[in-house]
Amino acid sequence: MPMHFQAQDLEDQLSRLFEAAGSQAAEARTVAANLVLANLSGHDSHGVGMAPRYIDAICEGGLTPNTAVQVRTDHGMLLGLDGRQGFGQIVGSQAMGMAMDKVRQHGACIYTLSHAHHLGRIGHFAEMAVERGLISLHFVNVRSRPVVAAWHGGDGRYGTNPCCIGIPMGLGEARREPFVLDFATSRVAQGKMRVAHNLGKSVEPGTLIDEYGQATTRPGVVVVPQSNGRYGALMPFGEHKGFGLAVACELLGGALSGGGTWHHEANDKRAVYNGMLGIVIDPQALGVAESFSAEALAFADWLKASPDAPGTDGVHLAGEPERQARKDRRAQGIEVDDNTWAEIVASGAKVGLKI
Ligand SMILES: NC(=O)c1ccc[n+]([C@@H]2O[C@H](COP(=O)([O-])OP(=O)(O)OC[C@H]3O[C@@H](n4cnc5c(N)ncnc54)[C@H](O)[C@@H]3O)[C@@H](O)[C@H]2O)c1
């Protein structure tokens, strides 16, 4: 039977877990709140189920609690930052804070962040920007076991390289909820395969190949080693175009940031590193704030006026599903499957905490 939690209870439990693993109280609380917000947003793949992996990474020395982002280069509106294997939720937010300070001075900021441990839901950083009326673009690579096949390739060669674009919608009284597009460049996020595998579910055809490069619907092929000791792979989204965007994320998030790209065999280390290129823009500084607002709203209205396609609930803009999920899950609670909860309890035991 899956467990049900109110968000606050889950956050409290996770916070204790990260403190037991060595985080100071404020860090533990921030990371816990970030993971629970991912669950609330409907992205269980990036929620509390990640905690056991974080604890393993701390125990292995690949994730260093209580680490702050370091400035490597600072050239006006350009910032080069090093996450120094700190919690992505911490160094990623610090990086966004610095970038937004730069935007105040220069109207825009281009920053890179290398060596962050897992940044979690990338939309979190775009949400920080759109709240302040800023546009935010993110290209991210993932250094961990390579789980995504190149277009027309037969094994995993790179990570689920997420891409995210946040755009504030409307100004002042006309302000509406923002557009927040935030997705893995694989057909689905790897964590969703972990969740499906834990629930014993199969996934849509076209999502996965097995350890021999053959199509399969079994999510376990990317979660546990298969008969020949190898894993299967996720397919890229959007065929050759999605694959191209994933490569761009690797080049911009990995090579340009200094964090590095993935080009070697997998190891069994538990740490997951993200590199990110972030671009933050103030529409006011471009002198188009009014027209940008009016045009953005007019386009959104035009899209929404489209008749519903048969069998669908009509047109939605990116960000809406997450906001709806937050409303629903705040009211109904968050469901955590048995396997995920057992993994969380076991990781508590690893750091001397009884959950
Ligand atoms: N840190 C990492 O290494 C890493 C790696 C991969 C993914 N992620 C995160 O995983 C999360 C989930 O990614 P995903 O690819 O599974 O997401 P997804 O496939 O659920 O797509 C989510 C995006 O699509 C939008 N969307 C969903 N339904 C829609 C509809 N009907 N109409 C219009 N827009 C719609 C959502 O608002 C959101 O912007 C993201 O937050 C991503 O940042 C992180």
Q: What topology, given as strand order, has the largest sheet?
A: 2-3-4-13-5-8-9
| Helix-strand pattern | EHHHEEHEHEEEEEHEEEHEHHEH
Q: Rg from C-alpha positions?
A: 20 Å
Percent helix = 25-40%
**How far is it from the N-terminal to the C-terminal residue, by CA?**
18 Å
* Uncertain spans: none
The structure class reads alpha+beta
**Quick check: average pLDDT?**
96
**Which term fits the overall shape?**
globular
Report on the architecture of this protein.
With 355 residues, this protein is α+β, with helices and mostly antiparallel strands. It has ten helices and 14 strands. A seven-stranded mixed beta sheet has the order 2-3-4-13-5-8-9, sandwiched between helices. The protein has a three-stranded antiparallel beta sheet with strand order 11-10-12, with no helix packed on it. β6 and β7 form a beta hairpin. α1 runs antiparallel to α2. The longest helix has 19 residues. The chain is globular. It starts with a strand and ends in a 5-residue tail after the last helix. It binds nicotinamide-adenine-dinucleotide. The site of nicotinamide-adenine-dinucleotide has 27 residues, from β9 and α9.
Topology readout:
Blueprint: E1 3-5, H1 7-20, H2 25-40, H3 51-60, E2 70-75, E3 78-82, H4 88-106, E4 108-117, H5 123-130, E5 135-143, E6 148-149, E7 156-158, E8 163-169, E9 176-183, H6 190-198, E10 208-209, E11 215-216, E12 233-234, H7 239-255, E13 273-281, H8 289-304, H9 320-332, E14 334-336, H10 338-350
Parallel strand pairs: 3-4
Antiparallel strand pairs: 1-14, 2-3, 4-13, 5-8, 5-13, 6-7, 8-9, 10-11, 10-12
The structure holds nicotinamide-adenine-dinucleotide (NAD).
